[in-house]
Amino acid sequence: MAKKGIVKFDIDKCKGCELCVVVCPKHILKIHEHDVNIMGYHPISVSDEEQCIGCANCAVMCPDGVISVYTE
Predict the structure, then answer these.
(1) How far apart are the C-alpha atoms of 71 and 54, rounded to whole Å?
(2) pTM over 0.70
(3) How buried is 50 (Cβ within 10 angstroms: 0-12 exposed, 13-18 middle, 19+ buried)?
(4) Which position has the higher pLDDT, 22 or 1?
(5) pLDDT of 26-45, one tens digit each?
(6) Which of 36, 46, 52, 58 has the smallest count of CB within 10 Å of its CB?
(7) pLDDT of residue 72 exceeding 90
(8) 2 pLDDT exceeds 70?
(9) Contacts of the segment 17-24: beta carbons below 8 A, 24+ positions apart
């Protein structure tokens, strides 16, 4: 069985830097085009969580600790 990841975001801390987007091997992270957080930034989101492999590259890369990745 393939490893599956669950990605959680602290949206209100996200500055939309896109560093996590660059390091995601499955290319499933994106910046919201319309949503804005309490700081006025477009936050990160996951487009297809079923594709997440739980590598946690995004969480390691995030300079603000916005992302947590859990594996099943």
Answers:
(1) 6
(2) yes
(3) exposed
(4) 22
(5) 999 999 999 999 999 999 99
(6) 36
(7) no
(8) no
(9) 17/63, 18/44, 19/61, 19/62, 19/63, 20/44, 20/57, 20/58, 20/59, 20/61, 20/62, 20/66, 20/67, 22/61, 23/57, 23/58, 23/60, 23/61, 24/57, 24/58
Domain 5-71: which CATH class? alpha beta
Q: Which amino acid is at 54?
A: G
Kindly state the tokens that stand for 19: 């560093």
- Give SS3 for 4: coil
Positive or negative: CA dihedral 59, 62, 63, 64: negative
The tokens for 32 are: 């919201």
Tokens standing for residue 71? 């594996």
